[in-house]
Amino acid sequence: MVAALWPEPQRPLTFLAGVRGPRICGPPNYSVISESHLSRYGVPWLAAALAVAVLPASAQVKITEVMDLRAAFPFGARRGESVDVLLVGKHITDPSRLLIEGDGVRVESLAGIGPTEARTRLSIAPDAPVGRVAMRLVGRFGITDPIPFVISDLSEEREQEPNSGMAEPNRIASLPRVVCGQFNPAEDLDRFRFRATRGRPVTIAVESFVLDATHSIGESRGRRNVDPVMRLFGPTGKRIAECEDFHTPDPLIVLRPEEDGEYVVELQDLGYEGNPAASYRLTVTEQPWLTALYPAGGRRGSVVPVEGVSASGEVLSGTVTSRTAGKLQFDTLVGAVNTRPFLVSDLPESLEREPNDKPVEANPAEVGSVFNGRLARAGDTDGFALTLKAGESISVEVMADRELHSPVDLMLTVLGEDGRQIAQSDDSQLAYGLESRDPELQFTAPRAGVFTFVLKEMAGRGGAECVYRATVKPLTKGFHLTTWWDNVLLKGPGGTGALLGLVRRELGFKGAVRVRVAGLPPGYAGAEGIITPAQTSVLLTITAPPDAKVGDVVPFYLEGEADVDGVRQVRRAIPRAQRDQDGETIWKPSTGCLAAVGPVTEFQLRTPVRKLIGKPGETVIIPLEIDRVPGYDAAFAVNAVQCIFTLGGSPAEFRATMPVPQGARKLDFRLDLPANLKPGDYTFAIIRGMGHDYRIDRPYPSTPLIHLKVPGADL
Amino acid sequence: MELLGVLLLTAEACLGPAAASAADPARLEVDPPKALLVGPLAEQQISVRLIRPGAGAVDVTQRVSLAGAQPAVQFQNGVISARKDGRYRLTLKLASGRSAITTGMTLDVRESESARPVSFAAEVVPALTRAGCNQGACHGGQFGRGGLKLSLLGYAPEADYAALVRDGGGRRVNRTRPEQSLLLLKATMAVPHAGGLRLPEGSLPRRILSRWLADGAPAPLASEPSLTGVSASPSAAQMARGDRRQTRLTAHYSDGRTVDVTRLALIQSGSEGVANVDGGGLITAAGSGIAPIVARYQGKVAVVRVLVPFPRPAVPLRWKTTNLVDEEIGRGWERLGLRPSEEATPAEFLRRVSLDLTGTLPTRAQLDQYLQDAATRPDAPDRLVDRLLQTEEWVDFWALYFGDLLRNTKKTSGEKGMWALHNWLRTSLRDGKPFNQMVGELIGGHGSTVQDAAANFYNAAATPEDLAETTSQVFLGIRLQCARCHNHPFERWTQNDYYGLAAFFPGVKRKQSPTEVLVLHTAEGKVDHPRTGSPVKPHTLDGPDLEPDAPARPAALAEWLASPSNPFVARTVVNRVWGRLMGRGLIEPVDDIRSSNPPSHPELLDRLTEEFVRGGFDLRALMRRIVTSRTYRLSSRPTRANEADDRYYSHAISRRLMAEQLLDAISAATGKAERFPGLPASYRAISLPDPSLAKVGLLDTFGRPTRATVCECERSNNPNLSQSLFLLNSGYMQNRIADEGGRIAQGVRAGASAEELVRDLYAATFTRYPRPDEMKRSLGFLAEAQNIREGLEDLLWTLLNSQEFLLQH
């Protein structure tokens, strides 16, 4: 049982009480529908808690790890049904709560099985919206990044092993049907048989990559996305089709049967890898399977007429209601079996009009609007024209590959009135620090006039599903904020966790930015830090109140403020969630930031110091208290961490590291301020780190943020 | 008369008994019958043969003399020169005791006393080439020698002139006292010269160089007629062992002029064991076979094909042919005097064709089935071939072959790209896609390397130069690499040709994004000629130019490659497939096609190529044509008469199993399948898409390529000591033989008799059953073993280490 492994010898009864009544609150744009509290396991919990007291103390101590939820199996369910779901991840020991971001899904139970698996039972409301919800797990090591969970209106079943042999495929009794499967273990091959009728097309679609399934558990050879390969065999056993990728690494085949009969679909992972997290959904349907909605978004509150493009060639018509700005919805149309992403903004929207291939034909557009288009045929190019004043700055952000999974790699080119190229963008790295194939550029008009923005596909691809949205906004001097990740672990009641805020300065703004943690419920202390002009990030901390309960989850956000040419500018940070894709870390915008109170697994760091004054060349002493859990005597190092990223590769203004001897409970941390330290305000915290490694990708204990003032002229 | 008599006898000895007829007197034949000498240094090599009707011809060039006084005309060793203009009627005489046979020829001489300066490009450079000054080992090397750098074999006359006359402060040429020019002093060893004596007294190159220096070392002319080609006379010759034959080489110029350049050309034999040649073009037949005598002159090549029959066979060739392969091969045997071995047994044929087409040893059940078929149906071999060509193993095996050529690896293409290209190869082969279409798709491939898997072709080679070399060697069978730095020394391809091919590729870009790799064909980029610095227009070999910035350069190249009229692609793949199936290409090495490396059976290659093109570039049909021939079915056991033949297919050519074939064969024979980590159990060595996916010591020991190059030579089938030790002693072999789940253990557990188990082992290794003597010996051996299982393991070890198992025969 979970509780047996959570050492809280000081307050076992409080712990039990805590799990009965977790407190959740948050701002209006964040909703947590349900969580699992363990109260239903009260009696067994008590027994387990008592067991804690008699377990050897050394057995209770766990090294800090990063919690990682990778997949659910099945990866979805039918509304109106209850389903047992296996959650697969890393270090998801002792999950206390499963958070659902979305409507219509209730967690009936949650139980940890081991460090890589947990089991939950979900109940899907009959009127739950078809689409996706997101799930996060809360546990000993914090909160995981979210994973998707699909809500459909189709009959769903699970694969039954063994189904690898040609003579033993699972039978799909009727269509449409969803089969949830796994590539597990390695070299797994899954086969499914269904009946098709001559003249009635059948779409066979796999979703795995788009659900972020990866091979990253246990003995897997590398953190790689699941990459399914599909083969289709006809009634005579002859292979009739094969697909590796269809717009994304997930395959899709449209079967147009020339004869009635039994067909077999075979699935494998490209590299024959397999593990419990390698989940997929296989949909076999005669109904349309949407590959795009066009337009691919709309203005909040509007009812948008859309065209649904399907894999089998049918075109559906319908409307989508744009619900919440800034969100990615998943919508469907009547007749279709799946949903497609739909982006909602708060800006006016326009639709391209062909022909607009040549600059003279470019569609007029406005700054502060969204231009929707698609490259409808191979070789198509689309242009829209903006009339700008001299020196007017705008940002143009194109969404196609990101979120929409549109099968295009776009290049954005800006032409002047003379047709000459002025600017160009291919792959953007600006948005959230996320590298993608979509272009984005910031453009300042060199003179007044009409500028044509041309979108072209790198390989000349085109088709009805090649949709995109180009958001044009005025660019103002100032800054933008993002978070390094969207969740923080606070180690124990009164404990402190650290996170990073990242700033991007624009149009020549060079000043300092004050960033604070906001939106916390009463009792939680969010620090306010300073990103100096020489830096692009800042360390911030959140401290839980002494009476916080282990298992509490609270929302927060980061807010930045700066003086931009005498005008106060305030911005809220865009939260980012981290995912792995083919061995690389990628970032995606998330719905909001969360802090969770976890148990103390090693120690807590405390200091009474909140403010300091120091001069360049001086040494300041910060007394530390190391509140170790019983049995944890290890030596370790602590570091003064100011920030991680700086401009131009220059080092942080100061840094220091000191060893904490074995068993030590107090330490006077010496911080030598550099002789050339510029006057101004600085913020830093002292964190347990890995030697001189200042990364804080693990939720190590931290002191609250400390403010250092270096007297002299302000920065 | 005595001499004539001797000559007659000699002729008879070479050419077989024939009655000399007094009605058909012997005569001399001179080639050329008319000659024109222009200029003071001109000379003409002639060839004189004594024709004896019914007794063949004998070369007597070295033995004829000039009859009558001709003070202005010199004649020595078959070379004529003249000092005075005029028309001369020459009489050539072959003396024999008191009689002689004569013939006449006409010689015109012009400008013999002319002050016309020696042409640097047309005369001096060839002289330097003939003298060896500009070969790669000397001044023609990459860095030259002794401070003097010349272009390799004289492909850049302007640069050579500058080097000789201007570089080094002009110290090599003495215009005041030309005979004291350092250039001359060194080459004649008047002063120490590391390169030795290059210009012997009286040699033509020396005379040319001396004259040029005396003329004041004039520079190359702005416009001179260009060399359009060279021709050899004769272009083919059938000789008997010991025979000699004078050949002569003629240069043809764009102004219609022809010049004898025999004593300025570089002439060498492509097969010295069959025929060799001296510097004057005199060929001597030394052995039996076909030898190309290759003459190179200023980048042009001419070939004399010399055929020397094997010792005359006693029996006529009885060779019923229904297949064009057999027709042409048989014709070759007739010319060469070869006779084929007998046909292979049905079991031998089964084993051979299974390994050749599918890389797989037949199972025992397949052996039994085929033996039964072969005993009752005359078309059993054809039916077997048809079945094998439709198997997945055929697809796997030939995907392996083409994967090697395309260098498909995870390292170059990423995992997705590697699998995509591998699956594309398999699908293309399985579906019978025409080979020219495959080539067109590979070169024209663009876009996502997953959606357009053929675009992965562009992963293995990054630069336009690499792509040119790869395209040329893989699809055209031409090793163009030499022409990167200089004109090709052995072939007509120039640097212009090399960079013209490279110029199709500078616009190829690769773009990597998180989920895909895009190959883009843009109009950007150009390739500059390394010597001139000017952009080179894309042009195919022997083809017209395109504009440098034409947008669809790879597409244009793809169209040319895929065209049925392309002179290289079909021929190359036909030769490759032939080489793979028959053990040796009609042109060998199979990817080194050049005029100085002619095919052993040019008519056969032409006919196969024509049929392949006409049949739609169908690989299965091509293979079927070859393996259903009688030639293919010949035994590998040579006869005494043909045991020296290693290239005319009078018997099958034995060769060692390929690494992958061997691993799978050992797995099948021992009953212990190899498991490749990360791949399903169904994967065998021949199905591996990428060598790096399976690090198995056996495969590397037995020469599996790593796909680092496109050369077929990267796969080594040469034996070495490591291989022997591996098979004899390795734990790998011991474990497989003795495995509890293996063939022997299972057979013993099942209670099979010793005789049955021996039959099983023979069938699994040799694809045949033991002969009575073999069975007797085996049973005797087993009877003496400690236990039957150990005995069988020892027997299997013996079989696996035998040549009959290890060789494809």
Description:
The complex is a heterodimer of chains A (715) and B (809). Chain A has 715 residues and is mainly beta. Chain A folds into 5 domains: 2-152, Immunoglobulin-like; 155-285, Jelly Rolls (Sandwich), CATH 2.60.120.380; 290-345, no CATH class; 349-475, Jelly Rolls; 491-710, no CATH class. In chain A, 4% of the residues lie in helices and 47% in strands. In chain A, the strands form 14 sheets. In chain A, strands 39, 41, 43, 45, 46 and 49 form a 6-stranded mixed beta sheet that branches. In chain A, strands 2, 4, 7, 8 and 9 form a 5-stranded mixed beta sheet that branches. A 5-stranded mixed beta sheet of chain A has the order 10-12-21-14-19, with no helix packed on it. In chain A, helix 1 (12-20) packs antiparallel against helix 2 (42-54). Chain A is globular, with a radius of gyration of 27 Å. Chain B has 809 residues and is α+β, with helices and mostly antiparallel strands. Chain B folds into 5 domains: 2-110, Immunoglobulin-like; 120-214, no CATH class; 227-308, Immunoglobulin-like (Sandwich); 404-563, no CATH class; 659-701 and 719-808, no CATH class. In chain B, the strands form 8 sheets. Chain B has a 4-stranded mixed beta sheet with strand order 2-10-9-6. In chain B, strands 12-20-19-16 form a 4-stranded mixed beta sheet. In chain B, a hairpin with a 2-residue loop joins strand 19 (289-297) and strand 20. The radius of gyration of chain B is 32 Å and the shape is globular. Chains A and B meet through loops of A and helix 11 and strand 21 of B.
Compute the CA-based radius of gyration of chain A: 27 Å
Beta-strand share of residues of chain B: 15-25%
Give the overall shape of chain A: globular
Number of helices of chain A: 3
